[in-house]
Amino acid sequence: MFRLFPPLVSMLLLLLVVAASSGIANATPWCGSERPLAQLHPRVDASEHFTPRHHAHARARGQGEKPTTVVPIAWHVVYNKKAGNVSSATIQKQVRKLDDVYSKTLGIKFEIANITRTRSDWAQTALTLSYLKDSASRQMREALHTGGPGTINVYSLDFPDARGIELKGYSSFPEDISRSPKLDGISFDYKTMPGQIRNGTTSIGMTLVHEMGHAFGLQHTFVGGCDGEGDGVEDTPAQQFPTGYTSGCPVGQVDSCPNLPGKDDVSNIMNYVPQHCYRPYGFTKGQIARMKTLSSEYRGFTF
Ligand SMILES: *[C@@H]1O[C@H](CO)[C@@H](O)[C@H](O)[C@H]1NC(C)=O
Ligand SMILES: *[C@@H]1O[C@H](CO)[C@@H](O)[C@H](O)[C@H]1NC(C)=O
Ligand SMILES: *[C@@H]1O[C@H](CO)[C@@H](O)[C@H](O)[C@H]1NC(C)=O
Ligand SMILES: [Zn+2]
């Protein structure tokens, strides 16, 4: 098993390291999707030409209009307390939030292809992105995952309410689909969905927006720190640490790699900041190019 999945195992180890060193950075990780670029798709430049390979998900929207890619979501509600059994109306609100951001940036829309509801302790035991055979996370995904690489499987779980625990979600990366097709997908805390209360604050749905960025091939803006290729995107300035929870939104004020060009892109969707600090449609051109390139290559989407 270790032979079969070396990158996955190293990701797991990295997660442990990130967790252990979180006291050094000023923010503990609230997203479990961390991996060095060296193990993933190389850098994509904003100007890069990408070649769509499949057309399966393109649907014409009326005559003369450009086809819009409609991305199906298979939603899995996994709960063991009543509150985690989120209503379809709440799921729709969350998907409308995704539509708002991703129609303005990638020109795509989402549709809820199906919703499953499972009463299980997985709601609390499947909280880490573990590919180990006996992990709850793996069992859950193998049991519930549906559709192919073009379907985004989303698992809404019930993460422990904050107070020290900041993990809100994680996503697999598109580069892993061919190796582990059933493990592809996003798990996140239902309390981050629009209108839900998390740690005393009403959520606006940004966690899934962020996780979807990973599912489309983005890394955190701070991956790799001040060295090397960072997040594999040319127009996101190098960033040493996630900005984290601060009072206010320090846009234009943080420069964690002072010897390199650009200040930290604090309000970028792939940074960690309080939910209201993300700017609307907060992806750069280079991030949009990377999402288009990777999701057409690995998920078969067209743009
Ligand atoms: C969970 O929600 C669904 C849809 O709202 C409902 O049909 C079902 O009875 C709920 N389950 C429980 C245990 O309350
Ligand atoms: C859920 O939707 C996906 C995407 O359309 C589809 O591939 C899959 O078969 C559906 N699953 C079920 C159980 O209906
Ligand atoms: C949760 O709320 C408390 C009190 O407002 C705050 O000190 C803490 O930083 C919050 N934790 C998270 C993860 O937001
Ligand atoms: Zn993340």
Automatic annotation (TrEMBL):
Pfam families in alphabetical order: Peptidase_M43
PANTHER family in alphabetical order: METALLOPROTEASE MEP1 (AFU_ORTHOLOGUE AFUA_1G07730)-RELATED, PTHR47466
Cross-referenced SUPFAM superfamilies: Metalloproteases ('zincins'), catalytic domain (SSF55486)
Source species, domain of life: Eukaryota
GO molecular function: metal ion binding; metallopeptidase activity
Gene3D superfamilies: Collagenase (Catalytic Domain) (3.40.390.10)
Keyword Ribonucleoprotein: no
Protein name (record): Peptidase M43 pregnancy-associated plasma-A domain-containing protein
Organism: Ceraceosorus guamensis
Keywords from the UniProt entry: Disulfide bond, Hydrolase, Metal-binding, Metalloprotease, Protease, Signal, Zinc
Domain Peptidase M43 pregnancy-associated plasma-A: 153-293
Similarity field: Belongs to the peptidase M43B family.
Any single GO BP term: proteolysis
Cleaved signal peptide residues: 1-27
InterPro entries linked: MetalloPept_cat_dom_sf, Peptidase_M43
